[in-house]
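Re: that chain you flagged

S.,

Sorry for the slow reply, it's been a week of failed gels. I finally had a moment to sit down with the sequence you sent. For the record, here it is as I used it:
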Amino acid sequence: DLKPRARDRPAFTPGIGWGASAGASLKWLLDAGVGTLVRTAGDLSAMSQAAVAALGLELLSDAPSDSVTAVRTPGDMDSGAVIKGLKKEFGASIANGQDALKGKIFRLAHLGNYDYIDTMGLIAALEVVLAEAGLKFESGAGLKAAQAEYLKRKG
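Prediction finished late last night. Pasting the structure tokens below so you have them in one place:
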């Protein structure tokens, strides 16, 4: 024996968690300020691009965006192995390429709740994984380049 639904009640359980999450995200965005977030994304992108160059890697684009740095893996190195290595050894998540670029590039994100320490740590971890995969470079070169870029942009 089912009773009819009350007039002011939804017919389903509302997504309260989604609403609370959206509210918290919006508060974070407004507290930080859009200009600060845009500037931070540009800094993180420049730091990542400097690290990529110092490691002898190649960017996918000649005109990279501030939102993501897409990096070609050298030779026959599978980007999936780099991604899995970062996840397994350091708990770090980066994205693979899609469609024809899957296995050929990896992507470092710069939007959202990423900051300078996240990028520095990711670059240091990336160096370890790339060295273990056989890439030859001076240890610390990417991190040093990212730090130099940070100091340049800070000043």
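What I noticed first: The two ends are 72 Å apart (CA to CA).

Talk soon,
D.
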